[in-house]
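Posting this for the archive.
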Amino acid sequence: MKRTYKKIKEFINNRIIFSRKGTLTVLICSVLAVLFVVGILLYTEGTFDKKPEVVETVVEEPVKEVKETPKEKSYLDEDALKVITDSGNRVKIALDERPKTVDIPEDQLAEYVSLQSCIIGENGMVEVTGASDAIPTSDDKYYYLFDAAMYEDSFAEDAEPISKVYKDTEMTLKASLKKGESGSRLYRKFIVAVKKGDEYKTVSHASYVTNPEAVAAYNYGGMQQSSKKGLLVDPSRLDAVGDLGVNYATYNIPLNRLLATSAEGSVAYPYNGVTYYFNGAILHEYDYLFTTLNAKGVDIAAIVLNNVSPSNFPEVTHPSARSGSTAPYYMFNASDEAGVNALAAIGSFLAGRYSGAGHGNVAMWIIGNEVNARKEWNYMASTDLATYSAAYARSFRVFYNAIKSNNAGAHVYISLDQQWDRNLKGNPDYDGRDLLDSFAASLRSYGDIGWGLAQHPYTVPLTDVAFWNGHKLVTDSADTSFITMKNINVLTSYMNSEAMLYNGNVRSIILSEVGYTSSKGDALQAAAIAYAYSKVAANGSIHAIMFSRQTDAPEEIAHDGLAMGLCTTGGGHKYSYDVFKYMDTPQREQYISFARGIVGVNF
């Protein structure tokens, strides 16, 4: 460095003479020139990674005299010299403080860089930020960004990087999102790599974009509701919905009704380079239903169910769920390109149509039904929990990104039944708690998103209406076998734990299906509804409860003896009809006081 400063001083003391009028301009140019020389000299003296042999070259600067009057003559004074040398010192210090370059063992390289975020920025670009303790050695000075398919463990060997940036302990790499285009990256994972031995080596864990809502055209998150009261509605008796004061309604969207195999009578939907078809007549039914409910002040939770025939739409169903099932619904498929594209198209189409486009609005989307019940409600061939939950988590993320990239305000939920922590040997299903933990961990490891929980806290058994009496398998412990309305606080306490929070907040929790049969008496059913609702109203972590159902279902009566409706199959009102209608109104006391004698609790 002594040689560097000597050259600087010689350069400055060449007695360049200038006029007072040009002093500032020449001084600035001189500073910039000196800083440039300092940078070059420091580079050649080995500050950066590669250290070429230094070759000294002395350059004689010609002295150019400018004849001027003595009054205008001036020289560079000590203060100006100090400014320039101080600037040179600052450059040296900055370069000296450049992070170390270290050799990272091969077994530690794969996740050496910690990804801090993977988001869609204000300009619509994907921005991947990361950090590391030092800079790993490699063939060059760059970090490279790759993208990989959702169903791939890493990028392909022949893949080309989509972005690069100079290596440092903190970095941001950017790439185009390409939403809606062929080759869209909305459903792809992003990975940082370095070039080592002429090969690209992974240096970070993969991450998906975590804020798909940044590119949404709509922002419908529901109405300002006066209570948490909801119902599984009867589309043939919508007039009564207003009379009952319903605020939330659940409704199924089975895909075998929605998807079409041809353009005739269908709505065509080009997406990511492929055209999909949706049954026009069925869409008009949903349009009418949702607009009518919205007009009555009702927010809708639509349940997307996979019951399509594998022979017609094999891409929608997971390969391990295409045969051998007696369940009505199957695991969605995000295990290959055709499956990801199909799910993305379905989610994007539905969210776009029902989020402000004039066909009615859906505020909540539930992906599948009681997905922990593998054998009964979300079939996939028997496998270990990690494999099953990863398959569901991938398909859930496709729907989540598709829905949220159209409607920023929408909520997207996983659905679980009342089995919580049974630990039952030979159980063909998974405990809700185990699946929830595995699902949450899987999403978090690839970039956490704002998923919600749609729980079904039915009684044990279903025919036991008086849930307040308890059951030996229903306790107030976190490892209770079942969760019912008696111990619903166990669920909400669990969701308030650190591992389940999202950005420090409790996730959206809805009780999207729970009901009580009137087969043991209308008054008992009505008391159960009133008491269950009072527990929800008092629980600040639960957003809504949807009772099952408005009208008795003949198949449930025939199969299980469950008459859970507020009305009979013929439309007649049960005792529970008026209790449901008034239990969240100023007339509440008049209609629910009877229930205290039945329940034995003052609520």
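Residues 23-44 form the longest helix (22 residues). The longest strand covers residues 189-196.
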